[in-house]
Design brief:
With 102 residues, the protein is mainly α. The chain contains 3 helices and 2 strands.
């Protein structure tokens, strides 16, 4: 059993090394002075991240969803490295427009 705060709906935008490498490759072909975000194409929910981990590891695990933040008497219950009260999602529009990143 896993406990997830914020109903497992926290959004966290990860980045895989392959995607960073692709952005670097594309930027190398189009030198310029700019700042671009580097992130995966999607910002999954914590519940989705948990499902993917289960699939990769071949596990079956029930998720118990807490409404809102962890309880005051157990402040770490339901938290993961990706649990946030507000979404963390990066805008990849500039990388798409300037470099052709998809």
């Amino acid at each position: 059993m896993r406990v997830l705060a914020y109903s497992g709906e926290s959004r966290f935008h990860p980045v895989h090394v392959d995607n960073v490498a692709e952005l670097v490759r594309l930027a190398g072909r189009r030198p310029g002075s700019r700042v671009l975000n580097a992130a995966d194409p999607q910002a999954p929910t914590v519940a989705r991240i948990a499902q993917v981990h289960d699939q990769v590891l071949g596990w079956e695990c029930e998720s118990v969803l807490l409404d809102g933040a962890p309880p005051a008497d157990a402040p770490s219950v339901g938290l993961t490295p990706w649990s946030l009260p507000h979404p963390l999602a990066l805008d990849m529009t500039a990388a798409e427009r300037k470099l052709g990143y998809l």
